[in-house]
Amino acid sequence: MASPVCLIIIDGLRHDTAIDECGYLMAAVEAKQARVWQMQSCLPTISAPLYETIHTGLAPIEHGILSNEAIRPSNKPNVFSALKAAGKTTGAVAHSYYHTLYGGSPFDPFEHTEINDPAAPVPYARYYSMEGYSKVNPALPSETDLCAQTWHLAQTHKPDYLLLHSSSCDSLGHYYTSNSAEYRHQAWRADNALSRLIPRLRDAGYDVLVTADHGMNEDGHHAGNQPGLRAVPFFVFSERFKAPESETLDQKAIAPTILSLVGIPLPETMKAVPLI
Which of 18, 26, 202, 262 is the 20 to 30 A CA-CA neighbour of 193? Predict the structure, then answer.
């Protein structure tokens, strides 16, 4: 049985913060509309390396992207390339790093903010740059706007795989630390916007996965091996997942799980066992 999949990545969201602050997601778990696990991020706990891990099923030490400063196009089989080769459609509402990784060229805001091209590596996409962001002006896209763009792609193009990536928790965590009202409040804001998107996606037939690339620490930093950096949430709106909630899941299993949900064979490089 194949189904379309939407993966939602709330960048920088700790597992414990998600459990404490994400009232909609936890309400869905309480109502048995969703399940939640703790997932362990790979090392280093840095964004671009873990975007690639999530989409290739390889640890950063294996795929070779080890810092944000060394970002380059993905050269490993990944969710986007595997689905493209299988004749499936993908879409993304995400930070510009994802265009550099999977869109076929370095990101140019004047060329790549909106993609509507069936021949492109990611045919339907809306990218944001956050250029010039600072503590005074975080330059964060509205969570509701990101969710609305995602729904527009789902309605208009019905991609087999749809990515939504929000950067706001990561940004406010850097500016104010994980132990701040600003960070906790932003986790709720993301959750609140998702309460308007996820029911629509479920009604449209999507399996929905919600996770983070890494967490955040009390110094407003991430990269290392602290529990608060490696422990991220993994919420699942699907009936096809069978792991016990007490099990800590492997982040490298996300890519093969997505491909298995969509119903295509796994590349040989994806060694982790799918979670369905």
Answer: 262
